[in-house]
């Protein structure tokens, strides 16, 4: 793995040099965009709107429109906005992880210490594990300030980027049912169904089956096998009565599909 960011964790007066690595990778297949007629690759060009000519990456700069005039910024300008923040993951608070709504979670990263920070890294990792807390931190990556939590596993400290409150949309525009719409008997039955389907969470039991099936289709098509189009139809419940549907669900002893 290659680091995508280097800097340090600011933990009180302790400074821990670290490297940041992506902790996730996409599972879907990688498709190329082709011309339908001859299967040539489709290329995207960066075109100057005035001259109509292609512009090289080395000639592209970032500009902010202010009073109808662009102010051009370079990498050093972004760093100068707050030089300390651009290189430091600053822990400001420690909280219980369960206090953070999953709605705020975004992207996970692994943190690896430089040799000079190995002891301090291990100390922070063990302290997080012993207290059961996570650190709330701010940092800057790719010219954007981010909010994150630092949590520990047995071997690594994970930085999980989280969203700011202002990035979460309000639910007031949604047409949602009131609590009064729920009947006590139906609620009791729904809770029983949830309990029946409850088990210990094991992420390895959940697979990206769509990508797997799609790859099988691609290999079959490459061999010249004719693919039959599936005939899907919506299966409606035998009864519109919610209580009857819940009873039928409880009567079905089959474990949850995954």
Structure characterization notes:
- The protein is extended and about 65 Å long.
- 10% of the residues are buried.
- The mean pLDDT is 86.
- Among the domains are: 5-29 and 78-165, Ku70, Chain: A, Domain 2 (Beta Barrel); 180-228 and 235-251, no CATH class.
- The protein has helices at 75-81, 83-87, 118-131, 184-196, 209-222, 242-251, and strands at residues 5-11, 14-22, 62-66, 69-73, 88-96, 105-113, 133-141, 144-152, 157-162.
- The longest helix is centred in the middle third of the chain and has 14 residues, at 118-131.
- The protein has 258 residues and is of the alpha+beta class.
- A hairpin with a 4-residue loop joins β8 and β9.
- The chain is 24% helix and 26% strand.
- It has six helices and nine strands; from the N terminus they run ββββααββαβββααα.
């Amino acid at each position: 793995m290659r680091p995508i960011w280097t800097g340090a964790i600011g933990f009180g007066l302790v400074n821990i040099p670290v490297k940041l690595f992506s902790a996730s990778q996409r599972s879907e297949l990688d498709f190329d965009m082709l011309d339908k007629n001859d299967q040539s690759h489709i290329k995207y060009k960066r075109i100057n709107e005035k001259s109509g000519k292609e512009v090289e990456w080395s000639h592209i700069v970032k500009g902010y429109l202010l009073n109808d005039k662009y102010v051009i910024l370079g990498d050093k300008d972004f760093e100068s906005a707050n030089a300390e923040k651009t290189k430091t993951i600053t822990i400001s608070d420690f909280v219980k992880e369960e206090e953070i709504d999953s709605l705020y979670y975004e992207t996970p990263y692994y943190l690896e210490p430089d040799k000079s920070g190995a002891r301090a890294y291990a100390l922070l990792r063990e302290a997080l594990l012993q207290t059961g807390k996570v650190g709330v931190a701010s940092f800057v990556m790719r010219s954007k300030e981010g909010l994150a939590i630092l949590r520990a596993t047995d071997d690594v400290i994970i930085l999980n980027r989280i969203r700011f409150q202002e990035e979460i949309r309000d639910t007031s525009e949604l047409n949602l049912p009131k609590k009064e719409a729920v009947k006590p008997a139906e609620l009791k039955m729904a809770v029983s169904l949830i309990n029946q389907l409850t088990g210990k969470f094991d992420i390895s039991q959940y697979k990206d089956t769509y990508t797997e099936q799609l790859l099988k289709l691609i290999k079959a098509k490459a061999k010249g096998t004719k693919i039959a189009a599936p005939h899907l139809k919506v299966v409606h419940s035998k009864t519109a009565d919610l209580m009857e549907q819940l009873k039928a669900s409880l009567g079905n002893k089959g474990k949850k599909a995954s």
